[in-house]
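Why does residue order matter? Because the sequence determines the fold. Keep that principle in mind as you read this record.
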Amino acid sequence: MRVALDTNVLAYAEGLGDDVRCQLAGDLIAKLNPINSLVPVQVLGELSRVLTSKLKKSSADVRELLLSWSDAVVVADTTWTAFQSAMDLTVDHQISMWDALIMSVAAENKCRLLISEDFQNGFTWRGVTVVNPFETKAKPYKLLASVI
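Structure:
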């Protein structure tokens, strides 16, 4: 099963956040199959901003981290079709454009899950279901459990 990762999960894996979430994010990513793990390029852009602004990492260090992520997972580019779908998501579901773009790229790349805490847990669109890995009691978590 193909899984997309959102910015917050990568940021926690990089140590930005409380100890519990950082540990959970790191453990989760370690269990995923890299071939079936996808990161939209939008996520890497957002991660760059977070690492430089909140963790005060240098541009050189951030570049190395982003390149490491690109070596570890599949990076998916944004297409015009994905952008158009994201615009529909913003209108139809009141999702921010940048979050909608992540969801749209995940759908375009045939992901079954989007691991994120930024969407409504369990929200499904075009076959992609959002799973918040930090809400372990929610029903969608069972989908995640099947891939880790």
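The mean pLDDT is 93.
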